[in-house]
Structure formats: structure tokens, C-alpha cells
Amino acid sequence: MKILSKILGPFTPLAGILILLLVWQIAFWVEVVDHVLLPSPWSMFVAVWQGMSGGQLLFDFFRTIERTALSILYAGIIGIPLGIIFGSSVGLYRSVEFVVDFFRSTPASAVFPLFLAISGPGDATKIQVATFGAALVILFNVAYGVMNARKTRLQAAKVMGAPRFRVLTDVMLFESLPQTFVGLRNGVSLALIIVIVAEMFIGSVDGLGHNVLDNQMLFEMPRMYAAIFVAGALGYSFNLLFLLIERRYVHWSGR
Amino acid sequence: MAEDANAPPSRAGASSPLSAAGATGDAHITIRGLSKTFGDAVIYDNFDLDIPRGRFVSVFGPNGCGKSTLINLISGLIDPDAGTIRFDGKHLRDTNFGYVFQNYREALFPWMRSIDNIRYPLKFRNIPRAEQRDRVDRLVERLGVTIDLNKYPYQMSGGQQQLVSIMRSLVIEPEVLFLDEPFSALDYEMTLFMRDQLQALFMDTKTTMVFVSHDLEEAVYLADDVMLLSRGPAEVADYVNVGIPRPRTAATISEDEFVQIKAHCLEVFQKLVRGT
């Protein structure tokens, strides 16, 4: 038993995946649901392979990446500087806190029709809504990161003779980085959700959201599952990417 | 200095702080009419003090008497409500001083390598790069530091981190060094080692040092003068001269003179705690 667990040790993270696939396969065999609604895992993987090797799925996959990446880029450009400004003055933050909190708590999908009315059903609207949602999350996290900068560190910079501006750039900025990455990771998850939802709306012609909805309406279930799977993999990868960047550049985080 | 070493520790609790400082030569830091209130608590009320030049002054007293507040006020971390503080007649901003925090983990910059942490204060002093490097090298040599300064602080032990912290405060070659319970987060073995490092450093540089401690043994061991503060508002309850020659060692702690001075300080301290 010991030897077995030693050999299998590195593969334990895969156990969950295997269990899930096994449960799915058994559900397929005993036909818990109609085969049309729940195809076998195998047929999904075939659809993923076919779609991703030059099919429509690959194109939609890249469209979604493009929109999400642009959204998070704009959200960062807006959210990080504003977060630093608001966070470095408690009074200023208190005065905008309610507005930030309110819109942060508002489901971004609820404001989608508003943006649709303003900007029309094009690509820009999807990116705008996702940017709006993600920027608020980033701003909020950055502001808290700055506000919770270790007081001793700020004092240390002060007694060493650092002028106010240098305290901001040399200490505050770095102090807020771990929390900024929390904001970026939450922001990219939210941006992806908004982009996928937006892609399901009228007027969309591509993207993973459109792909899922399209295949559902055509009753192409393996393809629909394939698109859902790819969307999940994309969300996971975005999160992982930011985690890796964080570990590389914010190496002191949590230590 | 020679007669100081042989002078019996002052036992007269009534001796005024000003004369105690005055007796040892000139005053380095002059504090006049210092007042500070936190909410309802009056920490300092019209407080006068002279801190002598080139001496190691330990500040000791009951909890909440304002030991740390004193060096925070002197070093500008807290603004006083009233009073003046001068360094040889100069204002703080014209004074080169170092400050060592109790919490080295939160005082060092973890995003910088230790060597860059040490160099950081030089950035604000218009010192050419070559000179910056020389200074750090000299400091490393003088302290006999063998740790790898290319490591990040979080890769080091607590003692090593505090040593980096102390080096950072020394690299500017300060006129005065403030230390706020710098060894209280270290284990006993490391504390003993760091005390001796600090003592060697003091003997070497004769920099005026103001050392806040909550450990009486440590306060006496390191000090030329132990300043005992009373609580709310703070007064100098006693100013005890420690004439034991340096370098003091572990054996010093069991010597009669050390034991007597420590006992005297403890007696004063207990009176303060019981309430005046």
C-alpha cells in the first residue's frame, strides 16, 4: 500500500479529473439522461479536437481571448492608477467608496443593455462592459493594497530621508502589488464571464459564448460541451497565467 | 571619560536629568518643553532632557510610559504637540540619523535584495555610486558580516534580517542611532550575539545611541547610562551611570557591580510600577 501511494503520489491531483470522467461515463452508460443531451466524454473530446484543429471553435476561442485580454488591459490602465490615487488618501477613498462598492456589487450583465443602447451591438460594447466590471474590481483591490501598506515600512522610508513622492513610488507601489494581483486575477475572471455572456447577446457573430449558444440551438451537444470545456480551460489558464506572473515578479508575496 | 568609568553608579534618584547628562560632557540632543498627548493620555508634559554625545543611553520603564514614543518624537515619526528638539542646535532635517525598528520583517523592503536595502538610504544623499559601493563594503568588513547580502530578506533568519536593518541605518554614517527594542523578536541565542555586535559597533564608532529596551539586563549590559522613565506624564525617574568597562561579556552579567546596578534599576522600576 505504501509503495503504491509512493508511485501514485505525483498523480493525486489527476484523481479528481478521473473520478469526474468516470462518473460521466457511467451516467452515459446507464443513460441517466438522454444521449442527445449528455453525450459521452469521448465524443466531447473528439469535438474539442476537431474544433480546435482549425475549426470554428479555434476561431471563436481566439476572439474571446482577444476581447478578454483587451478588457483586462484597459481595466488595468484605468483601475491601477485610480486605485493608487484613491488608496493613498483615506479621505478621498471614503468619499468614493460607496460608489465603487455599489457598482462593484451591481451585476455587470445588468448594465449591458445600457451600454448596448449607447455604443451599439458591436465589439466595442462587449469590451466596454467587461472593462467597466474588471476596472472596479482592480481599483478596489489596489486601493486597499495601498491603504493597508505596512506602516512601519512607510516610516522606515521616511526616517531614511525619502521624499513623499519616493515613498509612493518606492514603497506604496510595491506594497500594493500583491493585492493588485488579487485584483487582476479576480478582474480577468469577471471580464471573461462578461465577455462570454456578451457574446451570447443579439448581434454577436463569434466568440465562445456565441459558439455555446449556437450549438445548443442546433442541438449539436458534443460541440456545445466542447465549447464549454474550452471556455473553462481558458478561464483556468488566465488565472494560472496571472499566478505565474505574480510568483515571478511579486516573489515576496505572502512571505 | 576615564573618571566616568570609575565613578560609582549614581544612586541618588533625585539627581536631575540635566545635570546627569551635563556631567558627562556636552549634550548632543537637547529636548525642551516637549509635550505629547494621545487622546486623554498625557505622555509628555513640558519634558526636558539632554542626551549626551557619544554615549550609549538605554531607555527603560514600565509599559506605556512612552519609551518608544520618546525616540519617535525625536526622530520625527510623531509630531510633538509642543516643544523643541535640537541636535547640536540643528533641526532634525539637517541631521544624519539612523533608526532601527523592532519589527525588522515590516521595516525591510522584501522586494529588494538585502544589499539594495542597505544601499537605499544613500539614494537620498547625493553620494556617487562608487562611494555607495565602498561604504557598504567598508561596513561589511567592519562588522565582519559573512551572510550573503544578495539574498532577499525573507530568505534570511530573523537575526540576519535585523543585522541588515542595522546596517541600513549605519550606512549613512549617522550622528545618532535610535534603536526601538531591536532584539525583542529574536531568540535568546541570537539576542546575545546581536548585543555583542552592537557593543562592538558602538566601541568602534562612538556614535550616540539611544536604545529603547523592555529587558533590564540588556538595557544595563549595553548602556553607559540607563534612563528610567516614569509613567504618565513621563519623567526621568533616575539616570543611572553604568561605569563597567567595555567590552562587556557574558561574565559581566554575574559580576557584583552589574548585579548591583541592575538591582538598583529594578528597585526604581518596581516603585514606578506600584505607582508613585
What distinguishing features does this structure have?
heterodimer; A: about 260 residues; mainly alpha; MetI-like fold; 11 helices; B: about 280 residues; alpha/beta; Rossmann fold; 6-stranded mixed beta sheet; disordered N terminus
Structure description:
The complex is a heterodimer of chains A (255) and B (276). Chain A is an all-alpha fold and 255 residues long. Chain A has a single domain, classed as MetI-like fold (Orthogonal Bundle). Helices cover 79% and strands 0% of the residues of chain A. Chain A has helices at residues 2-8, 12-29, 41-52, 56-87, 90-105, 112-119, 123-147, 151-159, 164-199, 208-217, 221-249. Chain B is α/β, with parallel strands linked by helices. Chain B has a domain at 2-95 and 225-274: Rossmann fold, CATH 3.40.50. Helix content of chain B is 37%, strand content 22%. Chain B has helices spanning 2-6, 17-23, 67-74, 104-107, 114-119, 129-143, 158-170, 188-205, 216-222, 256-274, and strands at 27-38, 41-52, 56-60, 82-87, 97-100, 176-180, 208-212, 225-229, 236-241. The longest helix of chain B is centred in the last third of the chain and has 19 residues, at 256-274. The two termini of chain B are 34 Å apart. The A-B interface holds A 150-153, 155-156, 158-163, 166, 170-171, 174, 177, 250-252, 255 and B 75-77, 97-99, 101, 103, 106-111, 120-121, 123-125, 152, 154, 168, 172.
CATH H-level superfamily title of chain A: MetI-like
CATH class of chain A: Mainly Alpha
Low-pLDDT residue spans of chain A: none
Radius of gyration of chain A, in angstroms, nearest whole number: 23 Å
Q: State Rg of chain B.
A: 18 Å
Main sheet: strand order of chain B: 5-6-7-3-8-9
CATH architectural label of the domain at 2-95 and 225-274 in chain B: 3-Layer(aba) Sandwich
**Average pLDDT figure of chain B:** 87
User: What percentage of the residues of chain B does DSSP assign to strands (E)?
Assistant: 15-25%
Most extensive chain-chain interface: A-B, 21 and 23 residues
User: What string, H for helix and E for strand, traces the elements of chain A in order?
Assistant: HHHHHHHHHHH
Question: Number of helix segments of chain B?
Answer: 10
